Amino acid sequence: MVSLDSDDDSSVVRIDQDPFKGISKDYLDHGDQVLICEICSAKLWTSEGGKGRITLEKLTYSLCCGYGKVELPALKDAQPSYQDLFRSTSDKSKLFLKNIRQYNSMFSFTSTRGKVDHKINKGNAPFIYRISGQNYHCMGSLRPSNGQQPKFSQLYIYDIENEITNRQTVFSDPTQPSSSTDKDVDVQIIEYLRDLLDSQNMLVQTYRKVRDHFHGSPEANLKLRLIYKRR
């Protein structure tokens, strides 16, 4: 390879045609998901599906639906107003997409935990999030400790009169002035998402029942058990 700035017309530029040059030898490419289960329509990699099995005259696999034994209900279409938030066709939609991670965090039931490696990020390289061990979720108590602000699932139960404000400020530092990102969060969108989840999400409705119970008996010693039932 010669310099592109060279004035020598006789020089020849050789281009390396090896597409794998510079890629680690430890890199493993499984290709595309070329296997499709004819019962549940799941897409699988060849290394996942294996040979498959004919069930009810259809080619099926074990990893997705257990050869047709697991039957999931069809996905329901979201409300048109909710779908519009993801289409970036209005100022409201663009604002939502710009701050979608904040809105998602506002309505999360749990926090994530793990042993994070903080030493790996050095210099000006792109940020790397690396953990060791197992990543897990923490649900916490139904109500916050004395003097603490409600977070995560507690926001569905505690201090409902100020729920919107609590969600808007849950990840901000009260000792610091509000940032431009905090101002970008739209209160109307928060109210819309709250009302949508209240009417559509069964888990939210379960937590709202706990809220109602505490409203009638503030000192009640209450526990909530979430039991998964396979249909």
Report the structural category: alpha+beta
Query: Main β-sheet, in a few words?
Result: 2 strands, antiparallel
Overall geometric form:
extended
- Residue fraction in strands: 5-15%
End-to-end distance = 64 Å
Order of helices and strands: EEHEEHHHHEEHHHH
Radius of gyration: 26 Å
Widest sheet: strand order? 1-2
Helix content: 25-40%
Low-confidence stretches: none
Overall average pLDDT: 84
Number of DSSP E strands: 6
Number of helices: 9
Task: Summarize the entry for a quick read.
By secondary structure, the chain is an alpha+beta fold.
Would you kindly provide a written description of the structure presented here, covering whatever features stand out?
- A hairpin with a 2-residue loop joins strand 3 and strand 4 (58-60).
- It is built from 9 helices and 6 strands; from the N terminus they run ββαββααααββαααα.
- The chain has 231 residues and is of the alpha+beta class.
- The strands form 3 sheets. Strands 1-2 form a two-stranded antiparallel ribbon. Strands 3-4 form a two-stranded antiparallel ribbon.
- It starts with 34 loop residues before the first strand and ends in a 15-residue tail after the last helix.
Topology of this protein?
Blueprint: E1 35-36, E2 43-44, H1 46-49, E3 53-55, E4 58-60, H2 62-65, H3 80-84, H4 91-98, H5 100-106, E5 111-116, E6 131-138, H6 163-169, H7 180-184, H8 187-200, H9 202-216
